[in-house]
Amino acid sequence: MTNSPHRFDGQIAIVTGAGSGIGRAAAEGFAAGGAHVAVVDIRGADEAAAEIRAAGGKAEAVTLDVRDGKGWTALADDLVARFGRIDILVNNAGIAVPGDRAAEVAEEVWDRILDVNAKGVWLGMKAVLPQMLAQRRGKICNVASTAAHIGLRDAAAYCASKGAVLALTRQAGVQYASRNVQINSVSPGTTMTGLQRDVTEEQRAAFLPLTPIGRFAESPEVAAVVLFLCSEGSSFMAGADVSVDGGMVAL
Ligand SMILES: NC(=O)c1ccc[n+]([C@@H]2O[C@H](COP(=O)([O-])OP(=O)(O)OC[C@H]3O[C@@H](n4cnc5c(N)ncnc54)[C@H](O)[C@@H]3O)[C@@H](O)[C@H]2O)c1
């Protein structure tokens, strides 16, 4: 169970892609800090929420595809009806597909990657922003990637999608900053999660010399920055991106 140095008592948090990896670690951290967490995923949400509850935290599973705009509205309406507020949204759900090269990637695959990784982030923000603006308080953390900053091999649609996340975070961060809704992003480097399942050992080894810290991240190390960006400590941040990549983008 990921812990949290921050307190989120009484807050309502939504974390997408929380059935595994970075999202799951973040959901655990919010719950450890006292939040009630909506654990959103297309798979694994029940198990992740049950584990949080077994550890004494507050969590509920929501099986939702982040591409489903109506599903997003229903989730936001339901949380507002029951709790009267939504304090935190972490748009973390994301996919990568092998063989994603500009000259070859199938149109259907391009659309799927852009829809999940970029449109899903916008739909999530669109669903919660009316409530956050009405309550004049909200924190949104979008999960981008080093792929938004540098060209990664075999990741054409993926890089494009994460570039969109970065640009949207910057734009929306500026748009709503004066209304006390803070929108920022994190850009993880290689993190040992299920997303790496399609990456060969050889490909992963090629990233190691590009990672000054000399190893890859574990999910709680990325989640720690997500938790900070959603905590009181980030009170003067808006439209910012924080690299959590062992120094890769600084290299
Ligand atoms: N692992 C890395 O090396 C790495 C690096 C940079 C950025 N990221 C980003 O971090 C985020 C989390 O990925 P992870 O590494 O924890 O991988 P992961 O595969 O463990 O977790 C991603 C989760 O998103 C869920 N998901 C996929 N499509 C969905 C959809 N349409 N609707 C709802 N949920 C969906 C999956 O079921 C999964 O549980 C992603 O946005 C990813 O692009 C990961």
Could you characterize the architecture of this molecule?
With 251 residues, the protein is α/β, with parallel strands linked by helices. It has a single domain, classed as 3-Layer(aba) Sandwich (Rossmann fold). 41% of the residues lie in helices and 16% in strands. It has 7 helices and 7 strands, in the order E-H-E-H-E-H-E-H-E-H-E-H-H-E. The chain has helices at 21-32, 45-54, 69-83, 107-134, 156-176, 201-207, 219-229; strands spanning 12-16, 36-41, 58-63, 88-91, 138-143, 181-188, 241-244. The protein has a 7-stranded parallel beta sheet with strand order 3-2-1-4-5-6-7, with helices on both faces. Strand 2 (36-41), helix 2 and strand 3 form a beta-alpha-beta unit. The radius of gyration is 17 Å and the shape is globular. Nicotinamide-adenine-dinucleotide is lined by residues 16-17, 19-23, 41-44, 65-67, 92-95, 116, 143, 145, 188, 190-191, 193-196.
